[in-house]
Amino acid sequence: MRIEIDRKAGQPLYDQVAASIREAVLSRQIAGGARLPATRTLAQDLGIHRHTVAAAYRRLEAEGLLRTAVGAGTFVVEALPATEGERGFSWEELLRHRAGPEPDPLAYLRTGRVPVPSDPIRLNGAVPDSREFPMDGFITCMREVLDGADPHLLEYGPPEGYEPLRAWIAEWLADWGVEGVEAERVFIISGSQQGIDLLARLFLTPGDRVLLEAPTYTGAFMVLREAGARMVTIPIAAQGLRMDELRRVLGREPIKLIYVMPCYQNPTGTSMDPLTRQELLALAHGRGLPIIEDHYTSPLHYWGPPPRSLLSEDPEGRVIHLGTFSKFLFPGLRLGWMVVPRPLCQPLRRLRWATDLSSGTFTQQLLERFCRSGRLTDHLDRLRKINGRRLKVMLHALEKHFPAEARWTRPEGGMTLWVELPEMIDAAELLREAASQGVLFAPGPAFYPNGGGRSGLRLSFNREDEKRIRRGVRLLGSLVKERMRHRRPTDRTGGDAVPFL
Amino acid sequence: MRIEIDRKAGQPLYDQVAASIREAVLSRQIAGGARLPATRTLAQDLGIHRHTVAAAYRRLEAEGLLRTAVGAGTFVVEALPATEGERGFSWEELLRHRAGPEPDPLAYLRTGRVPVPSDPIRLNGAVPDSREFPMDGFITCMREVLDGADPHLLEYGPPEGYEPLRAWIAEWLADWGVEGVEAERVFIISGSQQGIDLLARLFLTPGDRVLLEAPTYTGAFMVLREAGARMVTIPIAAQGLRMDELRRVLGREPIKLIYVMPCYQNPTGTSMDPLTRQELLALAHGRGLPIIEDHYTSPLHYWGPPPRSLLSEDPEGRVIHLGTFSKFLFPGLRLGWMVVPRPLCQPLRRLRWATDLSSGTFTQQLLERFCRSGRLTDHLDRLRKINGRRLKVMLHALEKHFPAEARWTRPEGGMTLWVELPEMIDAAELLREAASQGVLFAPGPAFYPNGGGRSGLRLSFNREDEKRIRRGVRLLGSLVKERMRHRRPTDRTGGDAVPFL
């Protein structure tokens, strides 16, 4: 240990001594448990007063680096901090295990530092068009709720949610053919995202394997990663999960949980057919596996009723059902729901309490009033017409402007479809070019937890009007054709199969 | 393997065969990987048609229990489900690692099945009195916001929160002496509870040790337990943490995170004095330790300004500051804030996104309007008068009605105080008796993560009016005195010291 004293420095002497010793301790030049010189000895060595050394020791004791045993002397403590005190402290180091990509698919843009013109055509984002929000009905409901001026509106509420809203959701699900859901099994959550988070925390310990569709919802695998889960992906086919693959994987790997979107899947817009649903339930049944069904957008069906939910076909109670208002009503209210088997109610209640107590009581009451007044039904009728037309326009524009080599899904509901381009096209590169010309979309890799999707695009058809959808698709089509002219084609069959097309 | 066939049963034969094999496979009577008899052989043995056996095999294949290798035969798959399929499936089993107590301190009542009279005097709960909510001002703000009828009110918002509300909070903190907080470092969260949850998830991996005060906020250790943390507790003294204990613990155990409430601590109502704050910061500084400061109720100061926050004394950026509106405004809005050092902004943004995307945009705008209009300041002025009077009334009633052997804290702000009874009194038992007579409080053990607090009570003084506070304390006092008369006193000094009294 080398202690340097500078009598001309402004720093007090005891402070200089303390700094030298601190440095020596934190850099392990003096080992944990080692005895320091007696104050008298060190003072003589340094040619300073004994009290100065004692003050330095006291200071380091207060910092928890030294301890004094009466009669035995002063020692370095045994348990020194793992991060080397001040010199080594860094938030980045503490958060090293947290490194990871941005959630937003448009983060692909940021790396390229692409200047995007104002008011771009947003074919990105599974987000409703706020210009179609039923504001008048909402304001009327709010005025009605406020006329009561009931302060209970604004008190803490129970973790499971506002009872009348839970009851309304149970009734509403019955209208869709999901019978026998008691209000006690409906939990109000802030949306599907929170639902997946809560379930991941209930069921998973780090290293557990979760089975997902590929491609799938980005937010799902982000939060499953937070729980330390390993993603096992099953490609989806036009009729839903590739069951042959699923069986192969289940025979090989211990899976803890299945997460699927059986209805207008995000990003592809495809739905599971009845046979696939049945087989999936039989497999889960045989193996004792819980299934999370994310029914995030089922009320948005455009040409006939939506596919049945797994929950409605699950008498054994294997399925946990997630729903959200964010895709067809007001995402800014942050409200969704979850239907759970009875044994989950108490653990979920407890976990929700620990996480953030509950959803807001005020917004739950507004929403309940809005729904029960019949306004949700009216709004959905209207939205189905608007979105259905936009979907048709997009499909037509793809037909007209995209090259023959491209393929895409033809959803019957939801908000998005998937385009698979020839594999010479890199979707992230295409995005940078398209964005600079004022058209945004979500590039394929954002939807593959274990890599893939290089030449895929997710296009949203419910956020822009018909004219702008036409314009956006036309521009994308011309950019794709141009790129194809300038690249040497590679053999399509050599790449990954895209079974849902 | 024993296969029983009942030709008189209504169940198809192939189904009976499949059920027997399934049973044998799931109960491990047939090992994973084992070869099954050829369909012809088994059919002969059972005296049934070969196609019936083949149908049973196909069914089990569809369930993922068998696999057929062409030319080699039919085998049990290698990776059988860990939970033994249908027979062994139980949600309770899947959630075994989740067992734990209810968050609510009143759960102590449920075990006793005590009938509580209607409208009990609620000295439990750190909850504001909703009769004092500023409803008129809130309704005015809401009407103003709605007159704009801006659909953006109800869109998705950024994870970090509504920018004008973040800016207002940064300015407001400066009014309290917390200077230099840039709006970019303010995150809107749903309350302290979510703040602790997010931080636990950012910093902790299972087994990590967190340092807490004892007693402390129940919700804090509940959520830290969710993160797999081990609780290390430091008793608090009248002037805050017992620093001698803290130094001793830091010299002995590797601590990852410190969680404290330096201002009107929950449950005791005590605050850290300036020297303790300084020493705590020096220790954290020397050891590279982050400190979470939960300033959950600092605007509720009744006799002079609140103690300074750690954040305001922390030029090194070690402190993460949590605040909430729930303790003095509308808990049902679910809004609070968090001030973080700059390197945490991106990881926190990402984690919040994965957890539940963001707080509601609509409620954030309402709150911002309410705060910026000056109504929050007016409301706080009023609330300080009301709560201060209630605190005085409670202290006076304790003096008058509680036995000389009891001791209690004398907070200068906040919502709760702590009573320590002679150790012959069991607070949970007392609660059952008090509840049956119409008075509720929170029993001591609810605030000790590692046990303790047997004879402690937390009393809330801000939820009932003065008359009912008097009545509640009088009843409690008489119950305590009665119990003391009927029990043999034990030696007080033999029990745990209660250093904050």
How would you sum up this structure, described in words?
The structure is a homodimer of 501-residue chains. Chain A is an alpha/beta fold and 501 residues long. The first copy, chain A, has 3 domains: 13-88, Arc Repressor Mutant, subunit A (Orthogonal Bundle), CATH 1.10.10; 107-127 and 378-494, Aspartate Aminotransferase, domain 1, CATH 3.90.1150; 132-375, 3-Layer(aba) Sandwich (Aspartate Aminotransferase, domain 2). In chain A, 41% of the residues lie in helices and 13% in strands. The first copy, chain A, has an 8-stranded mixed sheet with strand order 4-11-10-9-8-5-6-7, sandwiched between helices. A 4-stranded antiparallel sheet of chain A has the order 12-13-16-15, with helices on one face. In chain A, strand 12 (407-408) and strand 13 (416-420) form a beta hairpin. In chain A, helix 1 (13-26) crosses helix 3 and helix 2 (39-46) crosses helix 3. The first copy, chain A, is globular, with a radius of gyration of 30 Å. The N and C termini of chain A lie far apart (71 Å). Chains A and B meet through helix 3, helix 4, helix 5, helix 7 and helix 9 of A and helix 3, helix 4, helix 5, helix 7 and helix 9 of B.
Q: Could you tell me the number of beta strands of chain A?
A: 16
Coarse morphology of chain A: globular
Unreliable runs of chain A, pLDDT <50, ≥5 residues?
83-87, 491-496
* Helix/strand structural class of chain A: alpha/beta
Question: Could you tell me how far the N terminus lies from the C terminus of chain A, measured between alpha carbons in angstroms?
Answer: 71 Å
Helix percentage of chain A = 40-55%
> What is the oligomeric state here?
homodimer
CATH topology of the largest domain in chain A: Aspartate Aminotransferase, domain 2
How many distinct helices of chain A? 17
Main beta-sheet strand count, sense and barrel state of chain A: 8 strands, mixed
**What is the averaged pLDDT score of chain A?**
88
- CATH first level of the largest domain in chain A: Alpha Beta
Share of β-strand residues of chain A? 5-15%
Chain pair sharing the greatest interface: A-B, 102 and 104 residues
Using the CA coordinates, give the radius of gyration of chain A.
Answer: 30 Å
Strand order of the largest sheet of chain A: 4-11-10-9-8-5-6-7
Q: CATH-wise, what's the superfamily of the largest domain in chain A?
A: Type I PLP-dependent aspartate aminotransferase-like (Major domain)
CATH architecture of the largest domain in chain A: 3-Layer(aba) Sandwich
- Total separate domains of chain A: 3
